[in-house]
Amino acid sequence: MIVTISGMPGSGKSTLAKELAKKFHLKHYSAGDFMREIAKERGVSLLELGKIAEHDKSIDNEVDRRTIELGKTKDHFVIDSRLAWHFIPNSIRIFVDISMQEAARRVYKDMRRDEQENTSMKQTLQNMKKRQASEKKRYKDLYGVNYLDKKNFDIIINSTRTTKKQKFEKTVKAIQKILK
Predict the structure, then answer these.
(1) At residue 115, does pLDDT exceed 70?
(2) Which domain holds residue 174?
(3) Mean pLDDT comparison of 25-34, 118-127, 131-140, highest-scoring range
(4) Quick one: which H or E segment has residue 101?
């Protein structure tokens, strides 16, 4: 079984992916980790890397290469990635939705070391809007897809007003229904 999880930053997709990996005894991968690794290698923030990626296709190409390779060489894994559903179409495709306000609140509260430009809740919200616009433009230009279009997914989970446990339980039930 291959599960691809997409969604907004702060939606809890990475946490959900890790929990599903444990539940179904699958390996976990993350395109966000791929991007953070590249940002660290280049000595820039994640937001800066996103802006660079608008003009430097090698960044997306590297993340895509890793994702495609997983889909071709592995059978049992979960990956949280904006576009894994596109590169691994034979997966169970999940989208974790969330309001932008709640997503920004969660991201700001997390105080991620690699996102130090998020100096306030307001700044975090602005940065997230810029990041989403950047990603949406890049993915449309590069692949002709909109990762926010819910028609691309088998399962839609809204995490705005749900606990981690509720989100996990809803997702497990939806996966089990697909597997029947």
Answers:
(1) no
(2) 2-179
(3) 25-34
(4) helix 100-110
